[in-house]
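Lay summary

Proteins are chains of building blocks that fold into shapes. Our project writes down both the chain and a compact code for its shape. Here are two examples, one after the other.
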Amino acid sequence: MNQPIPSKIKLHKQSQLLELHFGDEQFLLPAEFLRVQSPSAEVKGHGPGQEVLQFGKKDVAINQLERAGNYALKLVFSDGHGTGIYTWSYLYELGKNHEQLWNDYLRKLHDAGKSREIDTSVVKFIH
């Protein structure tokens, strides 16, 4: 099987959607989705069962988009995360499975009692 290679890549800054075209297929992937699905060791861990659930990323943005050779993109997010290298095949997989991966993520958040929202609670100390 040939590795899918995008024919078009466009970052929509206003909506924070990454538009990818692979032949006749088009995917619009939100920045938050890409951030929580980062292929980095920080998110995926170094092996099965070592994944780290990402939360509080609802308003994350893609600050920078760079090509990594002829095989991938490097995305730098507004929360400082920028170590994931998104290969063409991984981006294609994210596009093809977007709905299921997103629903799985939302279920994991719910099960862990976490939120997509940034935790802005303030701890008050009483003297």
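And here is the second example, written the same way.
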Amino acid sequence: MRPSSAIRAAAVTALAAGVAAPLLRRRLKIPPPVVAATAASAPFALCILVPRSRARDVATCVLQMWAYVATYEMPNDDPEALERRVRVAYPVKADKFLGRGTTPTLRLQRALGHAGAFRRWEKLLVWSHWTWFAFPHGTVLYLLLRHPERFPRAAAHIYATFDIGVIGYWAVPTAPPWYAARAGLMDDGLTPELRRMMVEYGEQFWGSGWEHLYGVLGGNPLAAMPSLHFATSVTAARLLAETGRLPGLLGWAYAGTLGVALVYLGEHYVVDLAAGLALAEGIRRGAPAVAPLARGLSGSVQRLEARARS
């Protein structure tokens, strides 16, 4: 077999395995490290097989997120084992310290909320949480279409935030506020108790479809630290601000709204957001140091791509 044919065959195999492994992991009982490594190889395999184009850039990002989602969800493949490992108390203590004895979530809900009713601004907060699924990826797509010279760096920053953040979900699985409230750790003898407002409004808005929708998007309910909702939104806002004042204002307005929403709705602690912000800023400031390594990896893939077509 010619070297070019061997490279293409290996890349096709890696691509197929990377797509299939997350789908088959439960049925075949594939070890999580094997699933993660196999899925992570798929974007590189695609780049070896297919010439650079906008379509390939989009497909590469999709494959990257395919690997991320599998890695994010796998701790919850065994919910009982995950619950035995989950940390519940430490963020409660940290947020109670910040809130002078009561977590900021409870303070905000008690001051502004009304059980069973949702004001327009509360609905806005819920929708800002739901639309997060589109914001970081929409930012990458916007930059690909309108500022293609910025796309490689932007994609690297946003997807590095996802990938590094998911390590925390494996190393220190941490419960969100609504889970701690259900476990009794938020009880301070006062009322109302903490509400999970996203679910309350979801059941009202989506009706019978809510349970299925949440089942699809839930993935891993015990993955709160750091908040990747906030981390990726901050990264996206910074990248948008580099392109102009208006995109920057829109980006930061969304990130700020989402930050308030995550705390108010009971989905994240303030300390989760702080950790997410630290992650986003750490990646931004650390990027120049790892740039030579990234260029070396990119060069290796490009050389394999050229040999596969020779």
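What can we say about the second shape? The mean pLDDT is 93.
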